[in-house]
Amino acid sequence: MEKIIRLSLANIRKHKFEFVSLMILVMMCVLLIGSALSAVLGAFKIFPDAMKNTGSYENFISILKKDYDKEFENIMREHPLVEQISSARMLYGGIKTRYINKNGEQVTIPQSFITADNSAGLERPVIDTTLTDEEISKLEHWVYMPYVMYDSGKYRVGDTFEMICNTKRFSFTVAGFYETLFLGDMSNGIKMIVSDSDYHMLKDVIPEYVVLAYNDNQGQGGYDLFKELYDKFEEYSGKEIDKKSFYLLYSDMEYYISESAYLLLQIIVAMAIVIVLSVIVMIRFRIAGDIKEQVVNIGVLKALGYTSMEITVSYVLEYLLMAGLSVIIGMIGCFMLTPVLLRMCELIVEHRGCGSVSPLPIFLTGLGVLVLVGVIAFIRAIMVRKYLPVHAFRKGQGDHRFGREYFPLSKTKYSVHFRFALKEFVCNFKRNIGLMVCITISVVAVVFSFVVFNVFCNGLDAIYAITGIELSDLQVELEPSSDAGILAEELEQMPEVRKVLPTSAYNTIVVAITPDGNRGMLPLVFHDFDDTENVFPIDGRFPKHDNEIMLTKYDAKWDDIVVGDSIILEHTGVKKTYIVSGVTTAMAGGIFYITYDGIKRLVPDYRFDKVNIYLEDGVDVNDFRYLIEEKYSDNFYGSEKEKNGDFAITDIVDMKEIMSTQLVSTVFAVRVGVSIFMTLSAVVVMIILFILMESSVRQRRKEFAIMKGLGYTSHQLMFQLACCIVPSVIISVVIGTLISFAVIELIIDYYGKVNIDISGVIVLDIVILIFCFLCAFTGTRKIRKISVCELMTE
Amino acid sequence: MNSSILHTKKLCKTFSNSGTQQHVIKNLDLEIYKGDFTVIMGSSGSGKTTLLYALSGMDKPTLGKVYFGEEDISAYSNDELAVFRRNHCGFVFQSIHLLESMNVFDNVMTGALVLQKNSPELIRKVEELLIKVGITKEMWGKYPNQLSGGECQRVGIVRAVINDPQILFADEPTGSLNSASGRDVMDIFTQLHSNGQSIVMVTHDVRTAMRGNRVIFISDGAVVGEYKMPLYSKDDMTSRKDGLQNFLDRMGW
Ligand SMILES: Nc1ncnc2c1ncn2[C@@H]1O[C@H](COP(=O)(O)OP(=O)(O)O)[C@@H](O)[C@H]1O
Ligand SMILES: [Mg+2]
Predict the structure, then answer these.
(1) Lower CB count within 10 Å: N or C terminus of chain B?
(2) What number is the ipTM of this complex?
(3) Which ligand 1 atom sits closest to the C-alpha of B47?
(4) Which range of residues forms the domain containing residue A361?
């Protein structure tokens, strides 16, 4: 055994640089896979842990107090699938509630307020605070917030929290934080615990709801159970329950939380796969190169009486030693990286609940990588078996220029260096395939990240453009019975307003009759779609006539409909046929685009109930919002004027701002993911090229010494060798770019169109090419150390 | 007459080069005796190296047999051959072939450890042998590319004999050395021989060949002549040289 270890160690000492490079690759491999796996397990525990820690109910139905009836609880209790029920009262402001964030900006987020007693009916809130009860009782208006306000909102105990509801402002002192699943995140909204007196004060401006909470054995009943209960409520009360009611189900929460955490982890796993593949290719290449360059040494060892197995084992041992070291470092890294990843997951899903790091996946990854490296090394190294010592001596150095003569130098037309490069490329075809695989994968990763980065992180305009909805500066939503026309005319007179467009607030549901069954769809209505600024047909054109509609790409794919097809729409028994004039992008389906005249055919008493306001340049959205809130303070929902039949404003909304608030965590995740992706790809490519060049130099040392003797300079030779990889890199860059386009195409096929910045991608490709060349060039620097004197023996 | 240690029966070695066959060794019968310093001579390309490789179990014959004592090594598998070589043979090469990745001492140890367990005695033996061939302590940590060819070859000889092989094979051991270094190296061979080491050496240099006590001349893949000399000594250099030269002339050298 000792003799074998000696061989391995000697080999390692000789190739320190490659050894370290490979170590880094293997280490990153273990680090990424190990911590990703461990974090996935942890992330899946966020939800159950949070559920357990908060003692939360599983499902929540919130009904406006005016629609609520005590009998609802009995209806729920009688259902066999419902295991436990409870109820509580809370105030819920929906999108009419805003707050001033730590940067002094107004942020719209659905807010709800609940008293401590009522909150105990939904969960067991654990308050995290640095204040004593006495100190809290001295505060005039205190509030406990969900942790998301600590993590994303950056609030701390003692801060002032200023909330806005319509024109009214309320100021609270933050007294503590708590974890809650029901209304504890930026997308669904945040639920704050306040004192009884504050609750009564807020009740005047924010509608009160009754929350019916029930357990159905971890989401067993699902949506069907909810629907059944809801229908029974309506049946019992004999009227429709207000659309402002809302629900949150176990399955939705679970899906949302695990899905978001998945996003980041998928990126990491994808990256790990890139690295694993590279490691495999590199180890194979390294051993093959090693054996080739060491045929003579192997011959000598064999002549001395070492068996093939012993030599093979010495190689395997060399790699196992390398892998073992890196696996240990990688695993230690895992224990440090996993908590960071878990914390990031928590930030992304906006809930806390991660326990400790689970060590099992980390150990398994380490073991797996070790075995993998061992097996590859063995399979590759066992090829020494083919050699009799005599082969080694007879072949010696001249191994790699047999067979056909490609690109004979006699036909050199331009530069002899390119000729050498081409020769080299063809002669090392197999090696180049490995290189191309690695670079292609990295290029796919980088180009894909680049496109995603462009969409998500270059301002949100690119995302707005694919939402499929019209985004104006401010939207005023009215009660369904109101007429938006009057309001629109009034607003248009204001000097700050550039344009107003009356439209629909999705209060009418139309049924589309399709071969796959009937589906509820919401109409987006305008007089003339040419006036819109954020809706773009990607196929066909806007609906112009009263028998035309436009669909989203999402729905068109779903129902297999193309431009020119017709579709039947139904509303309260009336059926009309429409022609699909165009298709547009949208993040999701369920909406269609139709002109005012068009919808009138189907819904004769249709009225616009929403006004899109476009402001002149330089007008501040929030200032303008105040202006109209003041101006129409008497027209708000529930006011005197409403009862007189005047139009009633329900909400004034800035959709762009709401979207940006909700996209914050997604943008954060994408940004982190993309940065990691790009950096790692670059590092991997760099290491691979270094290893490749370094061993090429070693393999052809004699050749280069001779070339130097012939009068080539070091730089010419370095240039020559670095050029060898250029054909492979060009091919990989082209293939990689095409593959990533295909992947992107596949993804966006469902959403519509993402404008890929082609010129940007081309520049990126050129940068990649130059980067690779520079890495290769740097990797060949050892040519400089080769001296002609090496040729002389004695 | 010493006892036979190695003999061949109708040894053939054929290479096929892109379709055409080249019969390098043809039905060669040869006996190597224990304690002899056998020199194989012949013109360039006559198959000397090929024969040496076949004799030493580095390569397998195309036809015919090679016996080590009573054992037919030509029937061995690759790994059995490796075991045979480590147990019985030592090698010195024209291009020396030290392991570039190891220093002088480790190069010798690589040869030693393939057969023996590491022990203080072994280390001492390596040290003694190195000093005996004139490789001083300062050089032990050096790498092959930091030594002169003569020094490397002396290390190569130590590596070859560290396991006390029954036969020491050498293929043109002075081929890449200048005459002074070559003489030093051959002095070591002479000394080894006088201590009873059996040696089989290929050379085409007359001065080197004079060190042996039996010269085999091969031509066109067959043994065409044999010449016996007394043990080497510095005194009868002229008569020795004339005798050998005479034999070679007859062979058409
Ligand atoms: N591996 C091989 N493949 C093909 N021909 C070979 C091989 N090894 C040796 N030869 C041929 O065998 C002949 C004898 O070679 P060799 O034994 O090296 O001669 P010597 O050592 O006597 O100079 C040469 O003509 C050589 O071309
Ligand atoms: Mg020869």
Answers:
(1) N
(2) 0.74
(3) 17
(4) 1-58+249-400
